[in-house]
């Protein structure tokens, strides 16, 4: 991408305290974007902020994405901080939360859904009107290869599949507004303190066995995933609305 393609753009990133979200915040800030870093852990957010370009109009926003009241309050603070002009949102927050019981309990399922989609959809509810007023904007959701295949836990597979349906449906509804709703379907990748890095650090043999089973024999680096996200947050992605884009180096089996 052109190094100036993000210059001056105001970008919200959920899950910005670690992993993919933190990487996006650093890279986009260095390319000239102003970043709102959202996550629960203020200490980790400040650590990421210190790795961003300090000359930019960045802001740290501690937020519990599973709490609707907190989401509404904090997202309005971000909108006001950027004077109502939000160019892009990257929803990197999410995860399986360690819930592996196939007969997942009600409260755990609600928490899983809130963490991966419900909180993000509430943020979109407040951001999309701003984008429509400006006749432009990009929102990117992060799903998983598990959204199309039963390779994770029942809960994780299900909520990630719901992201695919949400993006396709909302993208269709907003297709004529200038607001571009997209998502990515990544395979395994390593980023700072994400699930795959923790797997590598705690069970190296299991990680190596998993990696050797992948079609290209290695887990992706976060930088390989980032390149697609940067494109989807750009003005060049006008034909992508409603699309969920696989980026899995052949790991996925679904056609």
Chart the SSEs and their pairings.
Layout lengths: L9 E5 L4 H12 L3 E6 L2 H10 L7 E4 L5 H14 L6 E4 L14 H29 L2 E6 L11 H20 L5 E8 L2 E2 L4 H8 L1 H10 L6 E2 H11 L11 E4 L8
Parallel strand pairs: 1-2, 1-4, 2-3, 4-5, 5-6, 6-9, 7-8
Model description:
With 255 residues, the protein is an alpha/beta fold. The protein contains eight helices and nine strands. The protein has helices spanning 19-30, 42-51, 68-81, 106-134, 154-173, 195-202, 204-213, 222-232, and strands spanning 10-14, 34-39, 59-62, 88-91, 137-142, 179-186, 189-190, 220-221, 244-247. The strands form two sheets. A seven-stranded parallel β-sheet has the order 3-2-1-4-5-6-9, sandwiched between helices. α3 packs parallel to α4 (106-134) and α4 (106-134) packs parallel to α5. It is globular, with a radius of gyration of 17 Å.
Q: Helix coverage percent of residues?
A: 40-55%
Mean pLDDT: 94
What is the number of helical segments per DSSP (H or I, 4+ residues)?
8
Shape: globular
Q: pLDDT under 50 segments (min length 5)? A: none
Strand content: 15-25%
Order of helices and strands: EHEHEHEHEHEEHHEHE
Euclidean distance between termini CA atoms: 28 Å
Q: Report the count of strand segments.
A: 9
The strand line-up of the biggest sheet is 3-2-1-4-5-6-9
Radius of gyration: 17 Å
Major sheet attributes? 7 strands, parallel
Q: By helix and strand content, what is the structural category?
A: alpha/beta
Assembly state here?
single chain
């Amino acid at each position: 991408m052109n190094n100036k393609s993000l210059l001056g753009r105001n970008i919200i990133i959920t899950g910005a305290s670690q992993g993919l979200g933190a990487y996006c915040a650093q890279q986009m800030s260095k390319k000239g974007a102003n970043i709102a870093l959202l996550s629960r852990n203020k200490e980790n957010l400040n650590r990421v902020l210190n790795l961003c370009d300090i000359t930019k109009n960045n802001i740290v926003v501690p937020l519990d994405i599973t709490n609707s009241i907190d989401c509404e309050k904090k997202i309005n603070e971000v909108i006001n901080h950027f004077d109502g002009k939000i160019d892009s949102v990257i929803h990197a927050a999410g995860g399986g939360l360690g819930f592996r019981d196939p007969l997942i309990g009600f409260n755990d399922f609600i928490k899983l859904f809130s963490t991966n989609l419900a909180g993000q959809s509430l943020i979109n509810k407040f951001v999309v009107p701003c984008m429509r007023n400006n006749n432009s904007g990009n929102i990117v959701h992060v799903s998983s290869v598990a959204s199309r295949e039963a390779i994770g836990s029942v809960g994780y597979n299900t909520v990630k599949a719901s992201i695919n349906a949400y993006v396709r449906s909302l993208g269709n509804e907003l297709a004529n507004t200038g607001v571009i709703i997209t998502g990515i379907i990544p395979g395994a990748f390593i980023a700072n303190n994400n699930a795959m890095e923790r797997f590598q650090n705690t069970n190296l043999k299991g990680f190596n066995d998993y990696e050797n089973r992948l079609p290209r024999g290695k887990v992706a680096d976060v930088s390989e995933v980032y390149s697609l996200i940067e494109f989807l947050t750009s003005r060049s992605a006008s034909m992508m609305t409603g699309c969920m884009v696989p980026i899995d180096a052949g790991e996925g089996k679904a056609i």
